Amino acid sequence: MSLAEVVLIIIWVGVSAYGVFGGADFGGGMWDLVAGPAERGAAPRRLIERSIGPVWEANHVWLIFILVYLWTGFPRAFTAIAVTMYIPLTLAALGIILRGSGFAFRKWARNTEQARFWGAMFAGASLITPFFLGTIAGGVASGRVPSVVGDGDPITSWLNPTSILGGVMAVVMCAFLAAVLLAREAERGHDQDLVTYFRRRALVAGTIAGASTFIGIWVLRADAPDLFDGLTSLPDAVVIGISVIAGLSTLALLSRHAHGTARVTATFATVAILWGWAVGQYPDVLPGYLTIDQAAASDAALIALIGAFVLAGAIAVPALLFLFKLTEEGMLAEGSVASSASTAALLDRLSAESSASQGADEPGA
Amino acid sequence: MIATLAAAASELDFLAARNQMAVTLGFHIIFAALGIGFPLITLLAHRRGYKHSDPDALRLAQRWGKTMAVLFAVGAVSGTILSFEMGILWPGLMGPFGEVIGLPFALEGVSFFTEAIFIGIYLYGWNRLSARIHYLTLYPIVIAGITGSLFIVSVNAWMNNPAGFTLLADGSVTDVEPLAAMFNAGTTVQYLHMLLAAYMVAGFLVAGVYAWAWLKGRRERIIRLGFTIAFTVAAVAAPLQIVVGDIAARRLIESQPAKFASIELLPETTTNAPLTIGGVLRDGEVVGAIEIPGIGSLLGTFSLDGELPGLDSIPVEDRPSERATNIVHWTFQIMVACGMALLALAAWYAWTWWRRRDLPPNRWFWRASAIAGVVAVIAMETGWITTELGRQPWVAQDVLRTVDAVTPAGGIVWSLLILTIVYLGLGAATLIVLTRIARQFQSGDTVTTPYGPPEGGAHESR
Questions:
Q1: Which end of chain A is less enclosed by CB atoms within 10 A, N or C?
Q2: Domains by residue range for chain A, with CATH
Q3: What's the gap in Å between the CA of A107 and the closest CA on chain B?
Q4: Would the CB atoms of B110 and A76 count as touching at under 8 Å?
């Protein structure tokens, strides 16, 4: 395996992580969007907010990671994609701005109107961002990004059947993944109504995802025959098969109320689609234009990237696992009752002591 | 005719691309500075609260943490846009040189990752995490801010002092050495300059909020404590910044003489060069300036007869326009003036503390402190304009021209327009939300703001 391939695998680890963690956060935003009027939607929205809150910024970093690794490891491919796809990239960038700030600002809404405004901004942007990222993936996969900067068509490169399929698939998979995770989250909070609420939505989204996959195969056959050939022949057919099986298992597990296991299989289904895409266009970075070897940066740069990844594995990954462990244990539940060893309890104690000592001083003064 | 129109259009797109970078970076840098400086201030407050059983300090840390969360979110998203733009707007830079400058970006990613993770833990860990662990999570946030800014600034330092590669005749790059690129000749000084700027911006901005409250008659201990912690950070950074800034400027004589000549408004290479205050360059002549003979040379070379490079030392085709020179001269002077004013304010504070162990009682001190944060931001922004515009026409000094780095795609004017509108809205919304946070803390100290709808059932009770 060449250094370039190692770096590409690292990039795809990042793509998978962003697809799963970032995807679930986007999906949460989508379910927020369709949760209905303020009163009816309050309970699901609160669950979504609680499950996204502590983690979304960390999950978001994977996107930056992908961009940086792409431009360092495969600079020609990166600039070709960025220049050709500047319209959907700018739109996705706008979505990222609106989503993050809408989410952060909503916490400080003065009333329902304001909360609705910021909430709609967060939720709407959660829908358009993965859509445009998906159209970019579709455009790249169907060979619409030439390697010479400026040769790509700024419109049809992302407004074409495969890109639309990519966008729709991204949206549907995010929604599916999020619903499964939220059902599990609701189960941990012992909220049976919400469990049912999200399980139903997971089943619907999963069914739509499955249907889109089958429709998608026909779209690809007509629009991107090379990609279709790749996906339907070995070894990629195995990867796609895993995704389909994982997706179907998720539906079966959900109807049997096994939410914990469903979470694992749903993750598998998502990751398998992303790796299916990678295997489908191997050994090209830009199908039809640029292979991995042609696009790769110098060995020194690739080694530096691998080194940085090892460093990330040593520093950021344990920290990330710590974060996930704390979330899982409910240690980062903002609205919960303070435990006696916490800072909040310490603050209460200190405040009580200081007001008591002030009270004791006063009569003497 | 058509060729002229096309040239005009591409000229317009080129300007639009530069302006889009300026708008988005100029916006992000404020939040980046706060993302570096605010955690340190919060750590100091939390440390005091936790180690010395000070409830006021702990309450400050809690408030600042919540404010930091909003600022960090805006910083995170506005920073992401920049990494998009590196490719969208500047393929001519990222194509050949992406592999040269990629390592620090990757390492910055690790820093930012760490920061984002521990900010999540700190913000949401108040109620359930053990107080000790909770306190300790602030350290990685502060450290990640320190390392992250090193990596990002090293890239800008590389643009000013390109290193770590060999350029071939066809414009491609070989012999890439990522570490040599990262630790180029300019990295240390420029990094310290930015780190101190971040501490000054964050310190003075936060202190300003409490100075404002003081002016409105609030004299509680928590107000004075909040002011003291934040102001002390900025006041310590201010004198160091003058020293580092001075070293940074002197470096330019060798590394970027055109930038230096613009800053000093020197059309001709001279010994016994004056210090030029104000004024503009018009048709090669300095007009309307106060010139103090010899002081320019003295500051630049420690000798009255020292030779300073003028614009005439730069080949004509590489020379900055008079317009650019004038802007650079003025932004530099505004930056220095702001820095000196802030140093004076810090000295006032230090003097009073030394003599009386108390905060200055004079209202003018508090009025000045209330706007010191804005002054610090102006200094930082004018400093960035100086270093970026002062390097033109180069994007990487003497290696790549900005015009050769820009995207061939059209329509950048539109994305500039849309992004400018969005950023104006975002800036306004951030200010509104921050005002609301401050007001809420002052009025009732309801520290948990419930999620909006519905009005009645909004309280988190589970």
A1: C
A2: 3-301 (1.20.1630)
A3: 6
A4: no
